[in-house]
Design goal:
heterodimer, A: mainly beta, B: 109 residues, 3-stranded antiparallel β-sheet, 41% strand, globular
């Protein structure tokens, strides 16, 4: 059973960079069978996909966030990470990491395992 | 950007059938997926590829597709089904491969 766990600061100051890490257990990021993603959910609002990464380091970001997002992977630690720059109060949200099933030739993209989520508040 | 539109809320009595719709221009060409999210919890996949049910998901959850609308049906609704439900799909160009619907709150009366 795959498990994902987010970690990182719960409070970030405006204009700074938000940094989170997702640790994967019960499966290897390096297997190459899946992609790995970040999703966020502002309090009381809906879900927003941020981006995903493959074990090779190949990434794809939501075009609406692309200019501020960097996702990286550390296969030796079975972790992947999120950096979101120049944050504002609008970036306050629960941030989830998740495993993504991606089969481009079949137009298949969906999340099958999620972490429990971590609340990040942007405030001075 | 690409949008998937859901009704904000659906109310249903126990034992009745709840139907949640999701509309989007690319749905005739793209698969849809459905997630259930209970308060304080991460979303859980309940339907994939329009109508397939993951292992462990009760048979009362089913999905269907017709044109630009997909539907999640919960037959014989139980109190434990009260939750937010989100559809997810992709746009036709591939620019937005993972887009969530606006979400629907299902209330069991």
């Amino acid at each position: 059973q795959v498990q994902l766990q987010e970690s990182g600061p719960g409070l970030v100051k405006p204009s700074q960079t938000l940094s989170l890490t997702c640790t994967v257990s019960g499966g290897s990021i390096s297997s190459g069978d899946y992609y790995w993603s970040w999703i966020r959910q502002p309090p009381g609002k809906g879900l927003e996909w941020i981006g995903y990464i493959y074990y090779s380091g190949s990434t794809y970001y939501n075009p609406s966030l692309k200019s501020r997002v960097t996702i990286s992977v550390d296969t030796s630690k079975n972790q992947f990470s999120l950096k979101l720059s120049s944050v504002t109060a609008a970036d306050t949200a629960v941030y989830y990491c998740a495993r993504v099933v991606v089969v481009p030739a079949a137009a298949v993209y969906y999340f099958d395992y999620w972490g429990q989520g971590t609340l990040v508040t942007v405030s001075s | 950007s690409y949008e998937l539109t859901q009704p904000p809320s659906v109310s249903v009595s126990p034992g009745q059938t709840a139907r949640i719709t999701c509309s989007g221009d690319a749905l005739p060409k793209q698969y849809a997926y459905w997630y259930q999210q209970k308060p304080g919890q991460a979303p859980v996949l309940v339907i994939y590829k329009d109508s397939e049910r993951p292992s462990g998901i009760p048979e009362r959850f089913s999905g269907s597709s017709s044109g630009t609308t997909v539907t999640l049906t919960i037959s014989g609704v139980q109190a434990e089904d009260e939750a937010d439900y989100y559809c997810q799909s992709a746009d036709s160009s591939g620019t937005y491969p993972l887009v969530f619907g606006t979400g629907t709150k299902v209330t069991v009366l």
